Amino acid sequence: xxxxxxxxxWSGWGILIPVIAIIGTIGATFIRVALSxxxxxxxxxxxxxxxxxxxxxxxxxIDRKPDAEGRKRANSLFFVPPIGWAVLLALVSVYxxxxxxxxxxxxxKDATSVAAPSKRSGALEAAEAKIMSAREGVAHGxxxxxxxxxELFSKSAKVFRxxxxxxxxxxxxxxxxxxxxxxxxINGDRIAFLVHVPKLRKFNDDAKAFMxxxxxxxxxxxASTVDPRPTEIAIGVRGVLLYEAAWRGTxxxxxxxxxxxxxxxxxxxxxxxxxxxxxxxFRRQSxxxxxxxxxxxxxxTKAPAEIPTDTPKRDANIxxxxxxxxxxxxxxxxxxTDGTTFTGSLVSFLDEDFQKAAFVNDADKTFRVPTSRFxxxxxxLLRKYFDSRSPN
Length: 392
What we know:
By secondary structure, the chain is an alpha+beta fold. It has helices at residues 17-36, 45-63, 82-102, 122-130, 144-164, 205-223, 271-278, 287-294, 376-387; strands at residues 10-11, 76-77, 139-141, 181-187, 190-196, 232-238, 243-250, 264-268, 332-335, 341-349, 356-360, 366-370. It has a six-stranded mixed β-sheet with strand order 3-4-5-6-7-8, with helices on both faces. A four-stranded antiparallel β-sheet has the order 9-10-11-12. It has a two-stranded antiparallel ribbon with strand order 1-2.
């Protein structure tokens, strides 16, 4: 055999071990998503455990079958039987769980995605649950005005979808008859829309891109009917369980003539990043404000916290005393105690004790960093964002 080719050595049914492992990994993905609704994300270790279990069961099954002469058949891949591969995968999963619990990639140049908040708050998750099916209607919201906006969004997005996506191209989109179940959240000067697009997983790339732009346009038009007008807007476009993308931006002045796409400030596709981008829009204000808004009264707004004018400035991305302290922040450079830096957007804090913060980098990857790792100036800035959060 040529040196340019790798040799694959197996006996019996051993060639199927990688296939079984992949099937187990995919099956565990659904378990991981289901577990996330309990408030926790256990990371990729769950997927590896799924692969280990699948390979173990596969090994036990094929080892029971003797060959034509009544002897047990040898089944292996690279001389390792299925049970051996299952043990190796189990060890990998243990290491993955360990890395998930102690990893700290914030200031490393090779930082990779880490599951962001392990404990999830309830408002966003409740909204996501509302749009999983149309059993309770197609328009939901946290106030009467929000439900009206959700209904307008749902109708507009459905019109865009039916007019702009051709299901007769052999891609089996099956769009006819599906409702665009929508949830709208209005909190002060922020508004967010979550929409469940039926059979989104069957869309081709062009159809998905069109649906995202159509959803953003529908959100802009629906939000423009709110009085007083919101200034920040976000959308989360998803299938039954997973986000396709989340966008955040500003509400344009003229919904009929304005450039919708120019108003987009941030786009994310990573699941954790989508949740982190949307979560600040679902941080509820006081009950008094919600009651007033449901009665069509002007929602109470809270004056944003300010950074004192004597706060040292390192670059243009540090808020001035006139800027509102809102999350997510613009992309900026953050400095560690040892002088190393990374560029990212502060998206959320992971606890109520100011211990860790979550960031999204320009590659849409999320990671968490202990606040103690930052230089004093950035710690002070993080503390101001932390203290300026609206109460849940």
